[in-house]
Design goal:
This protein is α+β, with helices and mostly antiparallel strands. Helix content is 41%, strand content 28%. Strands 1, 2, 5 and 6 form a four-stranded antiparallel beta sheet that branches. A four-stranded mixed beta sheet has the order 3-4-7-8, with helices on one face. The longest helix is centred in the first third of the chain and has 40 residues.
């Protein structure tokens, strides 16, 4: 009789262990299924902000450059004049030396000259022009040939003629293009250093806007 009770007790404990094992198994499986569904229904959203801010202080620091030279042209010019006389003519030939500095004046930029859109920036620069109209070094001026007497007014008129000719010769389209390329490169480097991947440089002109985008 005791043996029968012991066997029955053992069988009961075995069934209890089996039941607990099944309950634990079902709980684990349920947890795994729930976790899997949670992972599937959850999404990780990564937002990339490509906007680059350019502050008013940065804009002001670039404007503070003022006159920005991009090309210097050394020139030598010979100017002559003739004065008619009764018996003979008087001649004056002078040689002038000058250095013409081509560039842009950053104080001439207009409102909204820098526009940032994401990682793209558009920069509108003033036209290339002479930075200084007083480009002839009068201390180097030489009289190549002189006959007769010439007063200060005559020499002043020749100097004005030299300024006009030298300006027209050096402020050529080819020299303007060289200065624009140099300005484009330097401004582009500044914008790239600030984090902009796409840089558009435009130059104002009395004829049209020249557009460069690399």
């Amino acid at each position: 009789m005791n043996i029968k009770k012991a066997a029955l007790s053992l069988l009961t404990r075995f069934k209890l262990q089996i039941t607990l094992f099944l309950i634990a198994t079902i709980a684990v499986v349920t947890l795994i299924v729930w976790a899997g569904r949670t992972i599937e229904t959850s999404s990780l959203e990564i937002v990339s902000d490509n906007n680059i801010d350019i502050t008013p202080q940065q804009i002001q620091s670039i404007k503070a450059i003022g006159q920005w030279e991009f090309l210097a042209v050394n020139d030598e010019l010979m100017v002559d004049t003739t004065r008619k006389g009764i018996f003979s003519d008087d001649h004056l030939v002078r040689i002038y030396y000058g250095t013409l500095r081509l560039g842009i004046d950053m104080h001439r930029v207009k409102t909204g000259w820098i526009e940032a859109h994401g990682d793209t920036v558009i920069v509108k620069l003033p036209p290339i022009d002479l930075l200084d109209d007083d480009f002839i070094d009068e201390t180097r001026t030489k009289s190549f040939y002189e006959s007769g007497k010439w007063n200060a007014d005559a020499k002043k008129a020749m100097l004005a003629k030299a300024y006009k000719k030298m300006r027209a010769r050096c402020l050529s389209q080819s020299n303007i293009n060289i200065a624009e390329n140099n300005a484009d490169l330097q401004m582009r480097n500044i914008m790239k250093a600030m984090g902009f991947n796409n840089v558009v440089i435009r130059f104002e002109s009395s004829q049209d806007n020249k557009h460069k985008n690399k």
